[in-house]
Amino acid sequence: MIPSVSSSFLLIGAVALLRSVKKTKKTRKVFRVYMDGCFDLMHFGHANALRQARAIASLASTGGGGGDVEGAEEVELIVGLVSDEEILRCKGPPVLPEQERVKCVRAVKWVDDIIANVPYELTREFVEELFSEKYGIDCIVHGDDPCYLPDGTDAYAIPKALGKYREIKRTEGVSTTDLVARLLEYADASENTSKSAGDESSGGKRSEKNERHEARFCTTASRIAQFAAKVSYSKTSKMHEETEKRKTDKKQRKNEKNEETTCCYVVGAFDVFNAGHVELLEECSFVADKVVCAVIADEYLTRDQTNQPPPMLNQSERAMSAIACRHCDDVVVGAPARLTDDICKTFNVTAVVFEDDDAVTERDRNVCEKNGVQILSVKERVFSRKKLTIAKRVQANRALFEERQKRKMASEKAYYEQKAFVEED
Hints:
- This protein is α/β, with parallel strands linked by helices.
- Helices cover 44% and strands 14% of the residues.
- It has helices at 7-22, 44-61, 84-90, 98-106, 124-131, 157-162, 176-197, 221-228, 238-257, 275-287, 303-306, 315-323, 341-346, 362-371, 387-396, 398-418, and strands at residues 30-37, 74-82, 113-118, 139-143, 165-168, 263-268, 290-296, 330-335, 351-354, 374-376.
């Protein structure tokens, strides 16, 4: 860990490091940008940060970001994922273990590759390794919210001193801190619902507290367009390799089975988008040419409709995470909860998958039979897609998370009080 040092000492070290970095000026055709983080409860705010980081790489590769790459034509985003141990040391326990966080981050369509188990602190040695031929990073990106080490020093002091640091705008209205608070509320509300259902003396009365968490996220047309835009990968990107292999496998399967173009329509709430959801959509992408994710509208997910607490996130918030997932080809924002003839014909649906198999009704089966649509069941394999599973983790460590929440809520309040306009890429 970097001790608290004087700015002059830091500058001397940075100058020495900069000299060593510039010894190998790059002639590659790819500009590589690095962004690290915990990415706990990977949400659409994280996804937007990664989108902006890749946009900065695009700007820099054309000469607008002060990069050292001569004639760069393509960009790559490399994401550093902080280990569980480092998160515990610096911030408190993560909600999602590393395996789940890796699955979620890798599924974001703007990510080219991941470096796992990176330190929370950007030490001189690690920064030098990033800028070396091993990783070939050209600049380091972080949000406009401050990031401090346990000793109070700036975690990004070294890349800033090197002039290799770029800042992006934090996404309004969402944070891991906010989601942890909502998960605690949800776990408590779910328990109260179960108790009320088994207590006849309650007369069906239920508390309306926390019925809907106030949302501050602004879903704009430009934001949806940014998320929905197609992403192209350089030939050196790991995602390029995976994408091309999948195309080849699908083409071979279609030729062998003489299949026509297939469309899998996936119906669900997709509340608190998680590794289980990624696994579900990935499985669907293996068997269909096109995956359409149908994010159910809020009006169909009220407590009166489902006898369950309503979603933690509204339909726009839930949809943004699905749009950012590389395994989705299209997303219906505010879809009907039930399958219809019109949906089958509009999207040329050949198969339908429900997030929860128990949600399939006789009406859905009749519509599928009428339109020649298969109902497929995609079971949970490695990861659970139930948000209650995640909420229970938070609830089980309530004391630790509540203590962390006190610290984080204070810093969140301070951020919003001093928040100023930042141009977004």
